[in-house]
Specification:
Rossmann fold; Protein-Tyrosine Phosphatase, Chain A; globular; disordered N terminus; UDP-N-acetylmuramoyl-L-alanine:D-glutamate ligase; 21 strands; single chain; alpha/beta
Amino acid sequence: MELNVNVKTAFLEGISTTAKPDQARRSMNLKDLKGSVHFAGIGGIGMSALARILLNRGYNVSGSDKQESPITDELKALGARICIGHQKENMDGAGALIISTAIVDGNPELAAAREKNLPIYHRSDMLNYLAREDKLISVTGTHGKTTTTALAGQVLLECGLDPSIVVGGIFHHIGANSRTGKGGYFVAESDESDGTHVKSHSFASVITNIEPDHLENYPGGMKEILASMETFVTNTEAFCLVCTDDGGVKQLLSGLSEDNLKKIVSYGKYKEGVAPGELPNYSFKSLPGFDMLVFKGGKELGKVSLRVPGDHNRYNATAAIALAMELDKSFSDAARAISEFRGVDRRFQLIGQVGDLLVVDDYAHHPTEVAALLKAAQEFKKVERSGKGRVVCIFQPHQPGRLRDLWQEFTTAFDQADQAFISDIYIARGGAIEGISSEAFVKSVKNSHTHYLPGLVNDLAKNLKPFLQEGDLVLTVGAGDITKVGPELVELLQKEGL
């Protein structure tokens, strides 16, 4: 693998920000800022987490979003000035602007900041600034970042390290997507989609897995993604936990320098009959139910109980346990914290139950994530429902480009569903792509249980209802507004029944 490939992530082009974390830390001096720190899109899950920590640390914060939400209401209650709608007047009284890749040229607040010559920072710069005095623990990877970050945060919290935490979802243990700690550790989800991970200078780090995704930001494909991950490892000081069962991680390791390889601590599945020295540093073995045995160097450490199904969650939990132990915390304390983990919003989240029918919501939007979710749902059905009922999935593709780029992979992603329904594509930005549609995709799927379900999102609950049966486990899946369907379906079934 060639080294030092230029990472052409969108946020590094066309905005006033810095590429290197140490530069961002030196350039940001918010304590001397005249005016508020203004977040364009403050209601977003990543932006609101940072705004919350700033408010907790006594900073003057303002922000805008397209509409009110429980998140903007909470930030307002904490003291933030909230503006609904993006307008140049919102920048009156602001001393700096924080943006994400969702904010593009033409945004009136970005234009106003440029006119006023205000400093403009990407959210990744803000994340690094907030963690500048702590030991940063960064979690990245194509899948599992949010859950692994939450698990790591909970484990360190319950082990007495009092970390600050930034998670890309509402973390049920803390009731928010961030917390401000005083223990000198900062656990953060480091997003690879926009290159945040490239800027992360971490004390310790985690790579869950590596696959092609967000190819609009990585025109060089997997080669470019791997180069960005190499930078992530290089910028890690002490150790980097990696899942060596993952093919992309294996590719990464094959190209790392000797110095970077010394930082690697591996985790994965326990393999029977393999010499301890050939096993991952930390490994797990599935047990009946949702439990697992955990090993270090082939030596059994003990049992860990999880509340959620699926090997993907066992991998995430193993990473969190490995992190704690590499920080010299006890296995028993880490295992206890894992057993108390109640999850993150939109990660196998129970929305409601009507009779024997369950409705669960999940953020899975990549074919690997969808396949893992459906496998976990089948495990849940076996353990919790004695194998009875069906796993019914309604999936909303996210972005025409992702469906186009991962078309073939998506055709087998729904194999584990008993019935799968594909709604129309959610377009977050950009426009439609000719020939790329949910209807065309379903026609290309070679099974009889995957169906096209047309209709606006507000109609999907009533359109899905005729196909449901008593005892179904219904999954609403995707990264768009499909999350609205679960509550609407529960309400509809409560009123009308099946």
